[in-house]
TrEMBL record:
A single Gene Ontology CC term: membrane
KW Transport (keyword) present: yes
Record flagged with keyword Nucleotide-binding: yes
InterPro entries: AAA+_ATPase, ABC_transporter-like_ATP-bd, ABC_transporter-like_CS, P-loop_NTPase, PstB-like
Record-linked NCBIfam families: 3a0107s01c2 (TIGR00972)
SUPFAM superfamilies from the UniProt entry: P-loop containing nucleoside triphosphate hydrolases
Key words, A-Z: ATP-binding, Nucleotide-binding, Transport
N-terminal signal peptide: none
Organism: Pseudocalidococcus azoricus BACA0444
Protein's name according to its UniProt entry: Phosphate ABC transporter ATP-binding protein PstB
Amino acid sequence: MVNNSSVQSAGSQAPALPLKAEVEGLNFYYGSKQALKNINLLVYEKKVTALIGPSGCGKTTLLRCFNRMHDLYPGNRYEGCITLTSDQSNLLKADPIEVRMRIGMVFQKPNPFPKSIYENIAYGLRVRGISKRSVLDEVVERSLRGAAIWDEVKDRLNEAGTALSGGQQQRLCIARALATNPEMILFDEPTSALDPIATLSIEDLIGDLKDQVTILIVTHNMQQASRVSDYTAFMYLGEMVEYDRTEKIFNNPAQQQTADYVSGRFG
Ligand SMILES: Nc1ncnc2c1ncn2[C@@H]1O[C@H](COP(=O)(O)OP(=O)(O)OP(=O)(O)O)[C@@H](O)[C@H]1O
């Protein structure tokens, strides 16, 4: 049974950490189908929060609310709010273009633009009217360094992004997300298409990135959630069952359902 009480902060023992965002009473509908039910969640600043749960529980749907991806399809509807603490803006009511500059996204499958490595980073700035070469050069280098791929590509910036290995392409996509100095980055199963070595390098990178940005990650991989995240939210059938420090969720969860899921008894 899902625990219907609204689960908000990450457990009673959580210290009072700075907040990046607060999800309150979030419902989401694909047409007439309700995929998220009264989600309440505090997202802590410069921490990694993992969303876990069995297939179809609503992890990706919740993640995509944060950068208004659902607006791209007709019939989708949100209720409730996701408030960014920095300026108290409700992401569900703000201009979606602005939201996507503040909240970057990295997808399951690396999806570089069919452009050069340099342009993969610079393109998003150009479409926002930034064309000064020195500024673009600086952002390209900073972003590629931030994604731990600068040394590998600095001498081949004019080569196609799609010519890189899968793991390098994913780091290029992370660099692209960093270019706008986002406040949060959303990762949707970012290593599911990668081999174990590339997976570990992305996990290391996520650990490094949290010094500068708040991270929300959807993962099916329990070991990955326990390795990379500080907080974990367990969802089931569109509801938030339990949210706490990752260590607590994996070692001593409050709900039996969470214990069953993290120990592999269902899902
Ligand atoms: N475009 C859509 N139209 C209608 N229903 C959808 C759509 N996308 C997802 N759903 C439904 O919403 C619910 C949540 O889906 P979601 O993809 O968020 O789950 P998930 O936990 O991320 O699953 P998975 O781990 O398999 O990716 C599921 O019942 C799914 O069938």
